[in-house]
Structure formats: C-alpha cells, structure tokens
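Can anyone check this?
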Amino acid sequence: CGSYFNGHKEDFPSVPYSYLDFNDGKCKSGSGNIENYHDIYQVRDCRLEDLLDLALEKDYVRGKLADYLNKLIDLGVAGFRVDACKHMWPGDLNNVYGRLKTLNTK
C-alpha cells in the first residue's frame, strides 16, 4: 500500500517532486545541514538533521502543497498545525496560506 519514493534520489513520483524541488543548491553550509542557528539563511535554506527541505519559494512546490491542504479542507479538516515554521520563509508560508480554501469551523 502507499506509493513508491526514493528519498536518497529526491524522487517522489506520486506528487511528483524531483531533485529540482528541494533547497540543496541554496544551502551555503559545508554539510548541507544547519550548522549555525544564528544564520537565518542556514536555518531556512538548509536541511534540518539531514531531512529533505522543500523549496517553498518555487511556485510549483507552493501549488502542490496548497492542493494537498485544500483536499484535506474538502474532507472537513478545520485547521492545521504548521511545525517548524522558523525553518520556512514567512513570505513563502503566506503565499501557500493565501491559496487555501476557507476552513469549515462549524
């Protein structure tokens, strides 16, 4: 059950996401991970503990994320908890939020 993906190759065909949809090229640390938590660019553009980091500044990535969240809203979800916001640029989050349908809070 589920769908196939290869995280090492950044290949997620069911979305689809590819290596082009991650922040690897933006990170300026030697390891690709956050090495300096006082550097906001590392905090927001590098991997956290080797976890893949989606490039939320890309319209395609924003659209795929918003489409998924809107499907959840259509199913009746009335809210979301966004974890690790400090690792995302506020403008990118605002762009995704602006694409969402109105939540059903009744």
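Reply from J.R.: I decoded it. Residues 7-98 form one domain.
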